[in-house]
Design brief:
Blueprint (H helix, E strand, L loop, with lengths): L25 H22 L3 H14 L3 H22 L5 H4 L1 H4 L3
Length: 106
């Protein structure tokens, strides 16, 4: 964290209290750390194809810290769930049906 979330003063590395306003930063740092951990776990869940779990993890991360990455992962995980649903409900398409030029070959 580079700036105090309360007064936006520049922070020195390792500060647990803002030198300008006295804001206690340890809980903010812990929350940011938890959000980052949830985002890493989200990406691992997506890689494993656990899209619903990934969506829940990404939403939890976005609730803790609303970053562009968290918002993007929520959207991607939700899209992946929708894409899974479309793929499971779609009947298989024969190769000839996909390409009309192949349907004349028998």
């Amino acid at each position: 964290m580079e700036r105090c979330p309360a007064c936006r003063a520049t922070l020195t590395n390792g500060s647990t209290t803002c030198r300008r306003c006295g804001c206690e930063l340890a809980s903010v740092m812990a929350t940011n750390g938890k959000a980052e951990e949830l985002l890493r776990t989200t990406m691992a869940a997506l890689a494993e194809g656990e899209n619903e779990r990934a969506a829940n993890l990404a939403a939890a991360a976005a609730n803790l810290r609303r970053t562009p990455l968290a918002i993007a992962l929520v959207g991607f995980a939700e899209w992946s769930i929708a894409a899974d649903g479309r793929n499971k409900n779609s009947p298989p398409i024969a190769v000839a049906e996909k390409n009309p030029a192949l349907s004349s070959i028998s």
